[in-house]
Design goal:
heterodimer; A: mainly alpha; Formate dehydrogenase/DMSO reductase fold; 16 helices; B: alpha+beta; Alpha-Beta Plaits; 2 domains; four-stranded antiparallel β-sheet; 6 helices; 6 strands
Chain lengths: 461, 171
């Protein structure tokens, strides 16, 4: 058994045996939902229904029901799309990149972060689908021969790269998540009695694929997890790079920059970690996971937010510098207009929430506080939404012809669809929190003895 | 004589690991070991061969990139070459930079999915498969060594209790 330094904080609080972990992880699944769960679920479900109605109206009437116009022909739809995809990135980073770096703190949070990824990417995928106007022809995005509809897809187009990137990302994330879930479903299966809970026994037997924990299976399991992590790591960087190329390969001032791929990937990780914090700080209370999702986990995530937030700030300033340095007056105008034009307030929100507020994490007491983290994570979520709004709308609303300059204001349908996806996301997440093992218990059991053992000895815990 | 099955149940993975080593050094065949989580060093102690999942993933990845390359070549160059923005698609090598993203994604897509499917098939895992762990506690906190043998079980039982088994059952 490996030894840790005694100054290293434990990742699991208290003296937990293997059986305690089993009990804690299966409790939300076995028990009844509490009042807060039902309140949150009802609110989310109403938002979801509103979203469904808004989407149905869009499909029935057309994209004209949104606030778009000929100048600003891309606004909330793509803003929301990029925002949700970005949120998805933290899950894969936690489960794949941190696995490759052997970061043990990922074990308590990877399951939920990955669930967030999958649900977030599902929301994102809705936007291109409804933006097609005729979603029943959505299969045209796949490479199908000319006689089936449109012509062959164009492999030179970043929009097609996006199709491949998002569908690969989504499906690989689901597989990675599920491979890890199988042993935990088996644990739940073995806890239910055939007589007292026959339905649950059947359900978890089905979901666990007959897992029995044989030595050879565990050996393969570990190798498969490692290889999937290795594959998912370049994948996560490629996805947001390709999303950024939707903009960067165009010739619109403010979009046509080579800094976009790294800038978008960093922004995605930044917003993703903020959403993980928002969700986990609520979840640890609702399903009693305080012993597993500790302030140490939150602090590690805050450090990542501080790092990526500072890098995003650097990217903003680099963009401004490059606009000035390029000597292209259109480019210079695009950035001047962002900061001082009619949308100055969204630029100010973006700068304030993404560059200034994360700097508060330099302060020890803020970095180690659940409440401060929760509030700041909401700031980051808002700031990152506005970042995409600023990039998209301010670049478009001042067209090449001053006669076609215009403004964008969202319609009720726009708002309904956006809130609807938030509702849908929370509906999925709340259902997940009641039916899935929210912590990768099999993996967590491997560190329960070693993590913080010396620390606990020293402090007589 | 009928075949008998003996289960040795342990509470701790280190005790289990030592016991497995001890049993192996006595040249006794272990049928299977069931654990609630991956125990490091158990595969070596049991003398299991290294898994070839990573090699499979590499082969599948090669398949993916080949598939993507051929697909794009057929669509963009052979079947329907188009002149897009003054950049005609008549040669693969002139256009290949813009084909890289899809070729990369297909590599990952094939490697990840086909490896996972191989893993499930090799382990006999599929929806509706019956679990084989003899004791439901082995997915919770118990470690179990299974033996199948003919004749006297005394030697094995003695060895198990000597090496720290918390429970020994016979069926």
């Amino acid at each position: 058994m490996q030894k840790e330094a005694e100054i290293r904080d434990p990742l699991i609080l208290g003296k937990k045996s293997y059986h305690d972990i089993t009990l804690d992880v299966s409790k939300p699944v076995e028990g009844k939902a509490n009042k807060y769960w039902w309140i949150l679920f009802s609110i989310s479900f109403i938002m979801f229904i509103w979203g469904v109605l808004s989407m149905a109206y869009t499909i029935g009437t057309g994209i004209g029901s949104w606030g778009l116009n000929k100048t600003v022909n891309w606004a909330w739809d793509i803003t929301n799309f990029v925002w949700w995809i970005g949120i998805g990135h933290a899950g894969t980073l936690i489960s794949a990149v941190l696995l490759l770096f052997r970061q043990k703190w990922r074990m308590s949070i990877n399951r939920s972060a990955e669930a967030m990824t999958i649900f977030g990417v599902a929301q994102a995928a809705l936007f291109p689908l409804i933006h097609m106007g005729r979603p029943w022809l959505a299969y045209w995005v796949f490479p199908i021969p000319n006689q089936f509809g449109s012509l062959w897809v164009n492999f030179n187009s970043p929009l097609l790269w996006d199709v491949f990137a998002i569908s690969t990302y989504f499906s690989v994330s689901v597989v990675f998540w599920y491979i890890g879930l199988i042993p935990d479903f088996a644990m739940l299966r073995d806890r239910f009695n055939e007589k007292t809970a026959p339905m649950k026994k059947k359900l978890y037997s089905f979901l666990s694929f007959g897992w029995s924990g044989k030595a050879k299976h565990w050996q393969r399991f570990e190798e498969v997890s490692l290889v999937l992590a290795g594959l998912a790591t370049p994948l996560v960087f490629s996805v947001h790079s390709i999303v950024s190329m939707d903009f960067a390969t165009s010739v619109i001032p403010g979009w046509h920059t080579t800094i976009f791929p790294p800038y978008f990937v960093l922004g995605a990780l930044f917003s993703g970690f903020a959403m993980v914090e928002t969700l986990l700080i609520i979840m640890r209370k609702v399903v009693n996971m305080e012993a597993y999702i500790t302030i140490k986990h939150i602090e590690y995530m805050n450090i990542i937010i501080l790092l990526t937030g500072s890098l995003v700030g650097t990217a903003y300033i680099t963009e401004l510098f490059m606009a000035w340095y390029s000597g292209v007056e259109f480019e210079q105008y695009a950035f001047l207009n962002r900061a001082t034009g009619p949308y100055w307030w969204s630029y100010a929100i973006m700068m304030g929430c993404n560059v200034l507020t994360p700097q508060l994490y330099w302060i020890n007491s803020i970095r180690k506080s659940f409440i401060a983290t929760f509030i700041l994570s909401i700031f980051v979520n808002i700031g990152m939404w506005f970042e995409r709004f600023v990039i998209i709308v301010t670049s478009l609303h001042r067209d090449f012809l001053p006669s076609s300059w215009s403004m964008f204001s969202p319609s009720l349908i726009d708002i309904g669809i956006y809130l609807g996806t938030i509702g849908f996301f929370f509906v999925l997440f709340l259902l997940y929190a009641r039916t899935f093992p929210v912590i990768a218990q099999a993996e967590l059991k491997t560190i329960v003895k070693s993590s913080g053992s010396e620390y606990k000895n020293k402090n007589n815990e | 004589m009928s075949r008998k099955t003996v289960y040795g149940i342990f509470d701790d993975e280190e005790v289990l690991l030592n016991s497995v080593k001890e049993i192996k050094s006595n040249n006794i065949d272990i049928k299977e070991v069931y654990t609630p989580f991956p125990v490091h060093g158990l595969d070596k102690a049991l003398g299991l061969k290294e898994t070839r999942m990573a090699i499979a993933a590499f082969v599948y990845g090669c398949l993916g990139i080949t598939f993507a390359g051929l697909m794009i070549y057929n669509i963009m160059i052979i079947d329907w070459p188009m002149n897009i923005g003054g950049k005609p698609n008549f040669t693969f090598y002139h256009n290949v930079p813009s084909f890289v993203p899809v070729m990369f994604e297909c590599t990952v897509l094939f490697a990840a999915h086909l490896m996972s499917i191989t893993y499930l098939i090799k382990c006999g895992l599929f929806p509706g498969a019956k679990s084989e762990n003899p004791d439901p506690r082995t997915t919770d906190d118990k470690f179990l060594i299974e033996f199948e043998l003919e004749g006297s079980t005394k030697k094995i039982k003695d060895l198990l209790s000597k090496t720290g088994a918390s429970e020994i059952n016979e069926k």
